[in-house]
Fold this sequence. Notes:
The protein has one domain: P-loop containing nucleotide triphosphate hydrolases (Rossmann fold, 3-Layer(aba) Sandwich), CATH 3.40.50.300. It is an alpha/beta fold. The chain has helices spanning 18-25, 58-66, 85-93, 104-113, 127-137, 142-155, 171-187; strands at 2-3, 7-11, 32-34, 38-39, 54-55, 70-76, 79-84, 97-102, 118-123, 164-167, 192-193. It starts with a strand and ends in a 5-residue tail after the last strand.
Amino acid sequence: MERKGILFVISGPSGVGKGSIVENMLPFMSEILVSISATTRPARKGEIHGKDYFFISAEDFQELINNHQLLEWAEVYGNFYGTPRDFVMKNLAAGQDVLLEIDIQGAMQVKEKVPEGVFIFIAPPSVEILAARLQARGKDSRESIDVRLAACQDEMKQVVNYDYMVVNDQLDRAVNLVSSIIKAERCRIRNLDMGCDK
Length: 198
Ligand code: 5GP
């Protein structure tokens, strides 16, 4: 039995914990390739080029856009982020499942291009808890936190465009739910390509 690769898109408001969910799930999830995004944001301490992101200049990012090398791209709070198209499309064609962890603007672009993908919205338990998390992670100024919280109200409305919603109230629980969604989608008949000669 041959199967096509499934594109899983994990997305949600800034600070909701998408990255932590993916990081904690990967050691227990077989056969999934995580796409490495290109970004114009400078690397943070400990981040590695080619592992966490491809850290590139604004000029190089523009060239990727011009050459249609990005499956999607978006400006997220002052920096540009994009998903390399070839990595995703070639692996899907080869039967590999691929995971994207991207913002909501990007996810909606992917949905137009790969509508059969599985779109998982990670939601905060509440805006108050999201505010507390953004403060606790200490990466953002008061002003930037306010901008993210205002955006979150709007972003929550996009949930209707997704296939699943997982509330990240407890990391372990959210990791379990996202893993379960991936496992269930892999069992879907429409995701199995059953040729009658196989
Ligand atoms: P950070 O700079 O904290 O790593 O990521 C900031 C935001 O950009 C997060 O919401 C993350 O999901 C999003 N992001 C990371 N890579 C991509 C990408 O390739 N495309 C889009 N649209 N968003 C991305």
